[in-house]
């Protein structure tokens, strides 16, 4: 019986995470803590040999993937399909300011994500439509193998909702997706088994605030 194991990871903490800015397709560098978070996960997964490593093409995810993969010789494949939701005019803006100036859509983002839409950028449905075919392609190319996927909060939520058969309207249900948290999914006979969801047991210091 072939067993395919997915290790799905959010990128490490970034400068804009600390500043509470929306990132989306725009980027900011990992903080010192963000690099440490990736290093902690590398140490936790040090005994896992990856047969495929895929990352969002955003540099915060690429850097996280580089740290986690360590000295493994598997090529890191960058994918635009694994990028965060495009937040258009919200990108680079502080969440509190968005909430004040665009309260209805900000509320929709968190409370009715299946209905969310900006004047520019993507809806959650559009992200789902680009992410899930990519996931299925990755799995089909590595059946019976270990796969690392490094991506972003919304994408992690959509991937895990797919495995849970959960609707987009409930996308923000717990657990919280902390930086470099680990979701581990084992697929046997086309059936997914969720072993870890939002796991941060590799953290070496207490979380004082969520980003």
Task: Write a structural description.
- It is a single chain.
- It is globular and about 50 Å long.
- The protein is an alpha/beta fold and 211 residues long.
- α6 (124-141) packs across α7 (153-164).
- The protein has one domain: 3-Layer(aba) Sandwich (Rossmann fold).
- The protein is 35% helix and 18% strand.
- The chain has seven helices and six strands; from the N terminus they run βααβαβαααβαββ.
- The protein has helices at 15-18, 32-44, 59-69, 95-101, 103-111, 124-141, 153-164, and strands at residues 3-10, 52-56, 76-79, 146-151, 182-188, 191-199.
- It has a six-stranded mixed beta sheet, with helices on both faces.
- The mean pLDDT is 96.
List the helices and strands and how they pair.
Layout: E1 3-10, H1 15-18, H2 32-44, E2 52-56, H3 59-69, E3 76-79, H4 95-101, H5 103-111, H6 124-141, E4 146-151, H7 153-164, E5 182-188, E6 191-199
Helix pairs in contact: 2-3, 4-5, 6-7
Concise synopsis of the structure shown:
The chain is of the alpha/beta class. The protein is 35% helix and 18% strand.
């Amino acid at each position: 019986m072939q067993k395919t194991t997915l290790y799905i990871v959010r990128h490490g903490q970034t400068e804009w995470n600390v500043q509470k800015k929306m990132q989306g397709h725009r980027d900011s560098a990992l903080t010192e803590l963000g690099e440490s978070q990736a290093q902690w996960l590398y140490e936790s997964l040090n005994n896992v040999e990856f047969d495929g490593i895929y990352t969002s093409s955003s540099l915060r995810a690429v850097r996280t993937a580089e740290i986690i993969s360590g000295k493994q010789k598997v090529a890191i494949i960058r994918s635009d399909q694994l990028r965060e939701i495009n937040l258009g005019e919200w990108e680079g803006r502080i969440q509190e300011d968005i909430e004040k100036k665009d309260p209805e859509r900000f509320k929709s983002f968190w409370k009715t994500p299946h209905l969310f839409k900006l004047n520019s950028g993507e809806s959650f449905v559009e992200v789902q439509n680009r992410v899930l075919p990519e996931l299925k392609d990755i799995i089909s190319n590595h059946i019976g193998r270990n796969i690392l996927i490094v991506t972003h909060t919304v994408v992690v939520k959509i991937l895990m909702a797919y495995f849970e058969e959960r609707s987009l309207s409930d996308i923000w249900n717990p657990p919280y997706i902390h930086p470099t948290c680990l979701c581990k999914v084992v697929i046997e006979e086309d059936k997914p088994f969720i072993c870890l969801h939002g796991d941060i047991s590799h953290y070496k210091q207490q979380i004082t605030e969520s980003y």
